[in-house]
Amino acid sequence: MPVIDLANPTRFLSIISRVLPWLAAATVLLFAFGLARVMTAPDDYQQGATVKIMYLHVPTAWLSMMCWGVMSMAALGTLVWRHPLADVAGKAAAPIGAAFTFICLITGSLWGRPTWGTYWVWDARLTSMLVLFLLYLGVLALYWTAEDPGRGSRAAAILALVGAVNIPIIKFSVEYWNTLHQPASLFRKGGSAIDPSILIPLLIMAGAFTLLFFTLHFAAMRNEILRRRVRSMRLMQAQELAKARS
Amino acid sequence: MNLGAHADFIVASYAVTAFVIAALVAWVTLDYSAQQRILGDLEDHGVTRRSQRAGKDKR
Prior knowledge:
B: mainly alpha; 2 helices; 0% strand
């Protein structure tokens, strides 16, 4: 089957209905395995048991940025090729990205209090993550409040592309500015600085959160396609009623 | 498993995460049921999509 066939909403729905149960089952299994590894993972020599918060904080931070990347690519599809499935993908990703960014901010704050002695500081990493969360809320507001869905989608797509500038700012904020947030421990020159006893559970949890993201995203895309069908059928019903009355 | 002196912060982090994920799962599940129900109601009232109508006309 050619890949382009996937871009057809009806074909996409048929594939998703077959894939989604398997994806959901794999997500649950990987979370169960990951959480079992987290429970038996050792404490960090500096952070103590609070390192367990990192198994939530780090994957959700990665995914909040990856989700914006998905939305930016979808925005290109919406603005350049005007593909309806691209718009569906962008709209479905926004609430999930906002939720992951929210988890990242809250867990980071709950980790910061015992480790740094404060819930929040206005340093470059924390502030740029907060900006990402506000950008997600902005995109959601454009999608949910625009009277004309087409105009709302185009405005949200433009914001998604403009907001993509924030992603490298988040990534490099800990290198370019003097921040309380520690520099990268995994993706850095010289390899990971994390001991395998903590790194392996972290990577398993990152895999579980990634599967969760795709499960939720595909399910939300399916719902959005159905919502658009409902809208077009209601419009047709209204047109037929108007024709019958005239 | 001993969570040490900062157990409250660890438990709160996992509770918030579980709550947000549960809310996302509930959102997609309930939304799917709602859209399916509305589509079913519209089809019961004889409203069909343009593509379905075109398919019927061809036959």
